[in-house]
Amino acid sequence: MNDPKVQEPTDEGVLFRLDPDLTLHRMIEKASIPNGVGWTPDNKKMYFIDSPTRNIFVFDFHLASGAISNRQVFFHLADDELGVPDGFAMDSAGNLWTAVCGGGKVLKLSPEGKIVGEITLPTRMISCPGFAGKDLFITSAEEEEPEKYPESAKYGGSLFRVHVGVSGKPQNRFRRT
């Protein structure tokens, strides 16, 4: 992964899959800044974020083999919107909640990839949501331009909690054979 403060991101990132027998497989190549991977509640689809592309991709996922196929854009953050998709969490109803780093919000996306909710926060640098019960905990990073955005800098690095009324999807667990 590249540090965009040092150089323009390049596509040297890779998503690997670790199988239960501990073999490693390259699943996605040529990613710039991979920032999230997760599955639908039925484990038939896998989501993947590559932040600089502003895309959340969706793949068909074969649970028994771990194979992915049929890459499509699930959601594209409009070019006139501030920020990029960052980390995300899935809820038990199949909605994807993605942080918009640089945009100061979390978007709730339906299983069809439509925006169905938005949480606005007091700092631009939102990094990742995660569920605990029916609350969404949202992490943030330090403001990259504190002189330009002093109000955002005041809350950068904070942890926020928002009651959203839905629980998170149970986490997938790794099982070694």
Measured as a percent range, the helix fraction is under 10%
What spatial form do the alpha-carbon principal axes imply?
A: globular
How many angstroms does the end-to-end distance come to?
A: 30 Å
Radius of gyration: 16 Å
Got a strand count? 13
Biggest sheet record? 4 strands, antiparallel
Mean pLDDT: 93
Helix count equals 1
> Can you tell me the residue ranges where pLDDT is under 50 for at least 5 consecutive residues?
none
Strand order of the biggest β-sheet? 3-4-5-6
The secondary structure category is mainly beta
SSE succession: EEEEEEEEEEEEHE
Question: What fraction of the residues are assigned to beta strands by DSSP?
Answer: over 45%
How would you summarize what this structure contains?
With 177 residues, the protein is mainly beta. The protein has one helix spanning 150-155; strands at 13-18, 24-31, 34-39, 45-50, 55-62, 67-76, 84-90, 96-101, 105-109, 115-120, 126-132, 135-140, 159-163. A hairpin with a 3-residue loop joins strand 8 and strand 9 (105-109).
What does this structure look like?
This protein has 1 helix and 13 strands; from the N terminus they run ββββββββββββαβ. With 177 residues, it is mainly beta. It has a 4-stranded antiparallel sheet, with no helix packed on it. The protein has a 4-stranded antiparallel sheet with strand order 7-8-9-10, with no helix packed on it. The chain is globular, with a radius of gyration of 16 Å. The two termini are 30 Å apart.
